Amino acid sequence: MVEHGDIRVVRRGGSKINFRHGFRPTMLLLCASGHSVKVFSTSTEECVHELRGHTDLVTGVVVKPSNHLQAYSCSLDGTIRLWDFTDGILIKTYDIGYSIYSIHTSAFHKGVVFTVTSTIKSFQLVAVHLPQSGDQLVKAPELSAVISDVSSNPGAIVFGRGGEYIASANGLHLEVFFFKKQKTYRFFLKKDTKTGGKNTFMCVAAHPKDDCIATGHEDGKIRLWRNFNHQKEYTYSTLHWHSNAVSSMCFTPEGTNLLSGGVESVLVQWRYNDVSQRDFLPRLGAAITHIAVSPDGALSCTSHSDNKITIIQGIKVSAVLQGLVTGDVETDLMVDPRSKALVLNGKPGHLQFYSLKRDKLLYNLDIVQQEYIHELGLQQFKVVKVAFDASGNWMATVEERKQKDAEQELNLKLWAFDEQTQSFVLNTTVADPHESRITAMCFCQAAASQTTMLISASEDGHFKAWQLHDGPSCLCDFVGAYRGLVPHCCCFSADGSLLAVSFQEVVTVWSPASWELLATLSQPPKAIRNLCFGRLSCSKYLLGTTDDHLLCCWNLLTCSLEWSTSMDISLLLGDPLTENIAAFCCHAGSTDLFVFKPSEPRPVFSLKAVCSGKVTHAVFAPREEMLESCEESSQWLNHSQLYFLTQCMDLMTFTTKAEEEKLMASSKQLLIDDSVAMTPFYLLLGKHRKGESGAAASGESAGRPPLPQGSGAVKELLRTPAHVLPSTSFLCSMFVKSLLVSVGDASEESKPAEEEMESEKEEEDSEGDMESSASRPERGSLARRSAEPAAPPLTKAQLRELRRVKKLDHSWLTGLLRS
């Protein structure tokens, strides 16, 4: 059995946004995403850097108050990491030793960060004193408790008036701690009001200049607290617009406005001096989970429950950063043959097309084409099945809605790809294609097939074959059944000559050309859950899994069981480009992966404990460029990459160590934006010198040597951030030495010059042979000259100058003498 070797499991697809995010003055947005911190540009909407290093979920990220080019991040792995996020460099790691659930900083407290850690029964806010050390990994054992019994929600803790006090809201009490007084004030509310409202604290915000604290509550009310530095003289006023709980609030930097949001998907902007005036930004698409404002107040952003960040300028949306929409995935994971995008459930009633290469959402396709109503208990249409043909010209979807006192509604929709809009357009809608719920659907993927065929199986005991045409029409070509049993899954062979349909514990094999039942394969006593045909050299095999934890392989030539093994397989799928079959097996609360070929008893690859829980959604995505891997354990990744969804809705994949290191190296390269102004320093980098290099080389060959633009010292000098460089006096000698030409280089340059002299000498000798012989007196004079003492030899520089003079054009002198 081949173990995992250098193959590792990594996150992909825009991991779900975790808690807080922050701006920096140059309009970069930082957000915690999975095990990393992503840095986005608010102007281009692209991910500039991904800060990796944490080994567990990142729970918070804040900009360092004393240096706006650096940021702290915290994680459940018990570490705080300091980053230079403009260049993606890890500066220092502080080991706390406890899981950290949020992080807070203040300019009033230098060298101290405040974190929320867990205790036996609750959470507490502690001050972490960061030691000054030159080491990259530093222990930070000095912790001091500030407030006990706080909420793990980062939005429930906030600093006020530049760090003079800190407020914490948890449950039904508000707690304010003043650092100078070292005194705590607590304020309590009743559980329910007389009108039935719920007073539970959800979030808190503090005015940057005034002594005012805003708290959001479960009943949708906002309370503005004042005089809270006196236990008995405090007052509060109430604002109410939200119909449900207020999930997040934030004051603008000047304190003129208060922003609030909740499940209504509406951002509310309250005037601080006149709360009766409000501005609204509705229809943001999903519930608001967090609000942040840039330091200059020009931009604000909201994060949403559908893994999206909306960037807002004024009261208008300026950009949207959409990750992989997480939620209930009813469809299988599919790959669009045209765009190579991952296709699965997105927003309610939509399919999302997610680019795996760019790690970015391409677009959402509205399948249901009905307005979604946010109301508990209301049954609405949802997309449950999706399939593509081999060319990507057709897509089929199934949507269903089940009501309590009515029959289930089903719609089979066929979508044709439109070349002009580069998207799928609804072609045909088949209402109630079956009498009961559809259990499986697949296209014939044979490239040589003249017609497009779709198979749908249903709990009504039938499967149907649909013929698709270019026009808006769809024809049911065949209806099949077997002994009144319920079909569960279906699949075509690679060449489209066979169709396998499982009816409970019996597998039936049909000929699509004549719709003749060719064979039946049975493996009692449990039902078949998955079916998969072999490919290429293994095309004669058919594999399936059963409810009694068996993996069976049938030989279609002999119609007999080739082999079987006992495995609790939750998902079985084949690579469309190779013979490899992937099987996700449940064992001891986690999932193991086995990759094998049906014709070989030894697995190609195996990995224990890929993730916790059960894997029910996975897909092989073909690579655009084949991976060149010579190791046996990773050759199965050369043509396709395997992606799968965990129970926590994290998209994971398998990569090699070399591939991951290449990705990390490319992300750290110095990138120069095309929008940079045309400055002398910009020209120094040589971006627009390519066209001038040829002419400059010929003109400067006789002069000074060109500067070594490819010098490693120059590249390192330009790439390294200025605040981490050594002193200029130290760099000066290294920089000057990089400009000097070594002796070896000079000798190499002299060799072409000597070769040129020899070639010219040979040319002169050949010209002398072609001339007529000279007269006797001339020979005599030459003999007399030879008897005279020889002249001193010319230097190389004199010879070079002599050749230059010989090549000069003296025709102008001849014309002058004639005139």
Description:
The chain has 819 residues and is mainly β. It is 13% helix and 43% strand. The chain is built from 9 helices and 57 strands. The strands form 14 sheets. Strands 6-7-8-9-13 form a 5-stranded mixed beta sheet, with no helix packed on it. Strands 1-57-56-55 form a 4-stranded antiparallel beta sheet. A 4-stranded antiparallel beta sheet has the order 2-3-4-5, with no helix packed on it. The protein is globular. The model is unreliable at 1-5, 667-679, 681-709 and 766-789 (pLDDT under 50). Residues 693-712, 746-799 are annotated as: Disordered. It holds the Pfam family Beta-prop_WDR75_1st. WD repeats lie at residues 51-93, 194-225, 239-270.
List keywords for this structure.
disordered N terminus, RNA binding, mainly beta, globular, four-stranded antiparallel β-sheet, 819 residues, ribosome biogenesis, 13% helix, 9 helices
Compile the SSE list and pairings.
Elements: E1 7-12, E2 17-24, E3 28-33, E4 36-41, E5 47-52, E6 58-63, E7 70-75, E8 79-84, E9 89-95, E10 100-104, E11 112-118, E12 123-129, E13 137-139, E14 143-150, E15 157-160, E16 165-170, E17 173-178, E18 183-188, E19 201-206, E20 213-217, E21 221-226, E22 235-240, E23 246-251, E24 257-262, E25 267-271, E26 278-281, E27 288-293, E28 299-304, E29 308-313, E30 316-322, E31 334-335, E32 341-345, E33 350-355, E34 360-366, E35 382-388, E36 394-401, E37 409-418, E38 423-431, E39 438-443, E40 452-458, E41 463-468, E42 474-480, E43 487-492, E44 499-503, E45 506-511, E46 516-522, E47 528-533, E48 541-546, E49 550-555, E50 560-566, E51 569-574, E52 581-587, E53 590-596, E54 605-612, E55 617-622, E56 640-645, E57 651-656, H1 657-667, H2 680-684, H3 693-700, H4 712-719, H5 728-739, H6 743-770, H7 776-787, H8 796-806, H9 811-818
Parallel strand pairs: 9-13
Antiparallel strand pairs: 1-57, 2-3, 3-4, 4-5, 6-7, 7-8, 8-9, 10-11, 11-12, 12-14, 15-16, 16-17, 17-18, 19-20, 20-21, 21-22, 23-24, 24-25, 25-26, 27-28, 28-29, 29-30, 31-32, 32-33, 33-34, 35-36, 36-37, 37-38, 39-40, 40-41, 41-42, 43-44, 44-45, 45-46, 47-48, 48-49, 49-50, 51-52, 52-53, 53-54, ...
GO molecular function: RNA binding
Subcellular location: Nucleus, Nucleolus
Biased composition (Basic and acidic residues): 776-787
